[in-house]
Amino acid sequence: MADTTETSANLLSLVPKAAGKQTMKDFKSDQEVRWCPGCGDYAILAAVQGFMPELGLAKENIVFVSGIGCSSRFPYYMNTYGMHSIHGRAPAIATGLATSRRDLSVWVVTGDGDALSIGGNHLIHALRRNVNLKILLFNNRIYGLTKGQYSPTSEIGKITKSTPMGSLDAPFNPVSLALGAEATFVARTVDSDRKHLTEVLRQAAAHEGTALVEIYQNCNIFNDGAFDVIKDREQAQEAVIRLEHGQPIRFGVDDAKGVVRDPVTGDLVVVDVTPENEADVLVHDAHAASPTTAFALSRLADPDTLHHTPIGVLRSVGRPVYDTLMARQLEDAVERQGTGDLGALLAGSDTWTVAG
Amino acid sequence: MTSQVSTEREPTAAKDVRRLERVVIRFAGDSGDGMQLTGDRFTSETASFGNDLSTLPNFPAEIRAPAGTLPGVSSFQLHFADHDILTPGDAPNVLVAMNPAALKANLADLPRGAEIIVNTDEFTSRALQKVGYAADPLADGSLDAYQVHPVPLTTLTVEALKEFGLTRKEAERSKNMFALGLLSWMYHRPTEGTEAFLRKKFAKKPQIAEANIAAYRAGWNFGETTEDFAVSYEVAPASKAFPPGVYRNISGNLALSYGLVAASRQAGLPLYLGSYPITPASDILHELSRHKNFGVRTFQAEDEIAGIGAALGAAFGGSLAVTTTSGPGVALKSETVGLAVSLELPLLIVDIQRGGPSTGLPTKTEQADLLQAMYGRNGEAPVPVVAPRTPADCFDAALEAARIALTYRTPVFLLSDGYLANGSEPWRVPEVEDLPDLRVEFADGPNHTTEDGVEVFWPFKRDPETLARPWAVPGTPGLEHRIGGIEKQDGTGNISYDPANHDFMVRTRQAKVDGIAVPDLEVDDPDGDARILVLGWGSTYGPITAAVRRLRGIGHPVAQAHLRHLNPFPANLGEVLRAYDKVVVPEMNLGQLATLIRAKFLVDARSHTQVNGMPFKAEQLAAALKEAIDG
């Protein structure tokens, strides 16, 4: 995928670089952060503010666009341009901005309700178009700002204020959904793992096109501990499958478990690694042209227990970027028809003259 | 190919020629018969001849309704004259009926004595039964009040094309060109334009192009030679109706598209259209998509909400942003319009109104979105509203809507409708130098000094004159700021839930829209002695003006005024209304402008309404106004 790296460099080069060295402080706005104490959003904000100087872009050319929900307050705290829009619509608004201004680095901050419920349509279409957007989806599996209703990622049977006898609907797996929507970059990370989160942001920022980053985020008020199994060092060993491109997919204590392909069904299964089957352990290929294996990996996770949850970059492939194609059509049109002549356009080809 | 004549043809002197001042022709046939194309071509011929004209395409929402049925009838009406005219005409003088359904669907609109040209080949017993004719109307005397010209159009077309080696079905498809040729002969239309058009349209299929031209010429020659058509007609150019200049024919949607391109150029901003296909607005999306060499970006979104969302995003980035739609789409966009009100960014919302509610009558016209545009949002969310009055006026209205949006940093509704969108008329092509200057200045530095002397940028510090806030686009160093739909503190734009601040911001946004400079309303009252005022808005301008002329012609003084700006109203509107004993407001809704007028000015405005999906007919409107005068 050497060529992907090259083109990413090309796309990022459209965004002006910062004049001097930046620090995390440069990206903190003067607004008081108003999330609940202990909210996972703080960690994500710190990670993003910490990562931005590394990107080295002029901060006036960075825009954060959000929808509605707790996570969507994010832009207020970034000292960049930003828009806190309306529920679910951030990908659409960001699409208009990104496709009209290729000199901007456009980020979308959204939540599980915002992106997957009210805004589901915009999310899937942004992904299929491959607009140059970086979408950070904070998934806490609950509605926080409306005080605790179940969300489209909540497990079945979730007891909440709106579902006192348990929720009835099957949840979305955001990674599976994004892969099904033709996404070119799909990753999952966790709010509390600063190092992993930053590495995923790094790869997302370098990706040319839409990058979807699902971030497991703890809502300590309405869904506390939803990701404990992934965060607790001991439990995580069995629960989390860390994906690294080019590495065998192994996890568990002493990497005792691995992912292999079932020769009969073609599906992926978790096995205890033995000397006999060690060679069969799948090597993660984030750049595989087909999303099939990435999808199969995403399905290993148990939606109830979160056991066998893959984290890391599941898919990162090159595909033409919508904004680039749109800009190219404009250039082609000028090449073919010449720069627009308004007088000629208005007159058209079929006129008559009334003499004075 | 029997034709020996040159491309440009003149009827010979062998037949009588009568001079007419004006003619109304209606072409009617199946949805698949090409009636809209036929009408368009006749219109182009007529425009290039120099008549004044006005058109009314009328077609079903179904693309191809079952052949030969009443719901499948598509028609195109054209009114042309040697003087200035205002409407597509109340009643056709000539009906071209390509089948029994077309005859049956349109007969009631014909005055006695009208000419009917029927394609007799389609009057089979099965076709007659399909539309409920018990007996053949061509034979049972029921058309005795009309001048009927029975013409076997299909047979003649197939005969004329027999040398082309086409299948019968292929040859039959040119029968609309035969009919066009015949009508072109009858009314002395110039023919070379249509022949050139056919060659261009079928450039990749030269045989089809030549077949259509042959059918067209055969129709013309048929008129010239057959005994049944003893008379042809001349309608002289309307040379006195037009000020000097270069003219072209233009439809409302095309004029509106050009207005947007012109506004973009005059503003020095790239045009960005976010849109989702919807009848009758899609043609604007199609048209603008053709002009990428003007820097126009068109984005066909996944839905109406994304269409306006993308436009708003582009507005934030400094584009002249537009979304185009019809009433159902406006309903979906409402929340984003509210966001644009709150963000105070320029945005044009073009609503080509159609019959409602819900899906309603997608291909028919109505003016029933006025109150939706005015009030269809949560909270106090004032939006300026501008409406064009004729197809060509859509160009100027688009420029005016852009002026307001850019000057005041506000979303603006542009309310056209299906009648303006698809109707056409001659348009004097403006000189580019005469177009208004719409240039804007983006914010480029701090605009406020804090108490401790620090220079800062306040995104909601307003221009004292216009109350517009600065437009600081991303990429401008030092002006990084965040805006959103939550209430903002005056000046800083920071989130504020302060009660007094909210009260102030709500009133300020309203004051900004109320304070938009719009020209005074002009009243047309030639003798200055009228006691009755007819007030209209939008596409009713043509029929109202025609009705007022009729009344004046029979000695009734009537004053007329027509609103371009529905929000804010012109400053002198109240004064104008109070100067008359009676105010009548004709509208294609159930009285929406009348409601606004009564509420705002406490004037006893009378409503005259029609919601049948069609424009007012001048004569009926004149009668209604006469009743108001007498009553």
Identify the strand order in the major beta sheet of chain B: 11-10-12-13-15-14-23
Percent of residues in β-strands of chain B = 15-25%
How would a textbook summarize the main sheet of chain A?
A: 8 strands, mixed
CATH first level of the largest domain in chain B: Alpha Beta
What's the number of extended β-strand segments of chain A?
12
- CATH H level, superfamily name of the largest domain in chain A: Thiamin diphosphate (ThDP)-binding fold, Pyr/PP domains
The CATH class label of the largest domain in chain A is: Alpha Beta
Structural class of chain A: alpha/beta
From the helix content, strand content and strand pairing of chain B, which structural class follows? Answer: alpha/beta
The pLDDT mean of chain A sits at 95
Number of helices of chain A: 12
Q: Could you tell me how far the N terminus lies from the C terminus of chain A, measured between alpha carbons in angstroms? A: 69 Å
Q: Give the total of domains of chain B.
A: 3
CATH architecture of the largest domain in chain A: 3-Layer(aba) Sandwich
SSE arrangement:
The complex is a heterodimer of chains A (356) and B (631).
Chain A: H1 2-12, H2 40-55, E1 62-66, E2 81-84, H3 90-100, E3 105-111, H4 112-118, H5 120-129, E4 133-139, H6 174-180, E5 185-190, H7 194-206, E6 211-216, H8 228-231, H9 233-239, E7 240-242, E8 250-251, E9 257-261, E10 268-272, H10 292-298, E11 309-316, H11 322-337, H12 342-347, E12 351-354
Parallel strand pairs in A: 1-2, 1-3, 3-4, 4-6, 5-6, 7-11
Antiparallel strand pairs in A: 5-11, 8-9, 9-10
Helix pairs in contact in A: 2-7, 4-5, 6-10
Chain B: E1 16-20, E2 22-30, H1 35-49, E3 52-58, E4 73-81, E5 94-97, H2 100-106, E6 115-119, H3 125-130, E7 147-151, H4 153-160, H5 168-172, H6 175-186, H7 192-201, H8 206-225, E8 231-235, E9 245-251, H9 252-267, E10 271-275, H10 282-289, E11 297-300, H11 304-316, E12 320-325, H12 327-343, E13 347-353, H13 370-375, E14 385-386, H14 393-408, E15 411-417, H15 418-422, E16 424-428, E17 448-449, E18 455-456, E19 482-484, H16 499-514, E20 523-524, E21 532-537, H17 541-553, E22 559-563, E23 565-567, H18 573-578, E24 582-587, H19 592-601, E25 606-609, H20 618-630
Parallel strand pairs in B: 1-8, 2-5, 5-6, 6-7, 10-11, 10-12, 12-13, 13-15, 14-15, 21-22, 21-24, 24-25
Antiparallel strand pairs in B: 2-4, 3-4, 9-16, 14-23, 17-18, 20-22
Helix pairs in contact in B: 1-6, 4-8, 6-8, 7-8, 9-10, 9-14, 11-12, 17-20
